[in-house]
Every structure is written in structure tokens, then in C-alpha cells.
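seq:
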Amino acid sequence: MRVVIQRVSSASVVIEGRIKCSIGPGLLVLLGIGNDDDQSDIEYLVGKTAGLRIFNDGDGIMNRSVTDTGGDIIVVSQFTLMASTRKGKRPSYTDAAGHEKAVPLYEEFCRRLSEATGKTVGTGEFGADMKVSLTNDGPVTICIDSRQR
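struct:
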């Protein structure tokens, strides 16, 4: 399981011309789910995401988490994060989990992240053509792969 976590001033997801969700300051999390991922990957990445200290404290030092700041979160499923580019120029997505496995893990990740932060987590729509907009604050972008613990 892989996440790309972006500290944002604002973010939104639009599907078929309508806003699915939007947030102010917080995190936009892109989530890639692999064939071998399970509950332990969710537990690891939820803990990292909720506790990642990438927000400034009173001294301007990145020392506060989204939980500390009360920031909002959007999680968007993105199978392309599981792309392999080892061969050729066309990415392979064979490592990405299929719909049957990925949807329950995505939903569980969002539910657990909501519980960990005490805030409702905004979501995209699995498999939809989404337009994701963000204003990256910093910019701060962190990539975490649960297989590289």
C-alpha cells in the first residue's frame, strides 16, 4: 500500500461536474492498494498519516500533525501509484489490487483514518473519473510505502 500525502491549504474532488468533497487546510492523501495488501498495511499507514508531523508549530517548525491541528483530510484511491515502470515506457498495473479487493481496503482505510483523527474523511469515488484540485502548502509532499517499514 502506498500513500502520497500532501499538506494543502485547500483541496477538492469533482466528479461529473459536481463537487464530491472539498476541504480547507489539511491533507490530500492519494492511496494506492496492491495485491498483497491487508489490514496490517492499513494500520501502519493510518498511524503514519494521522501522526505525521508536517504542520508548523508556533515557532514555524514542522512539529504538529493533522490530528493536532484539527485539519481536514481527503483520501482519493489511485491505482496508478502501484505502477511498475521497470520495463519499457508503458507502466504496468499488475501489482494494483482489483476492484473486489481494493474497494473494501480503501473504505476501511478511510474509516480507520476518520476514527484516528476524530474527523470525517472526505473521499473520492472508487473507479470514477475524478478532477482533483489542490493548493499544496509549502509545498510539502510525503510518500510512504507500507512495504518499506
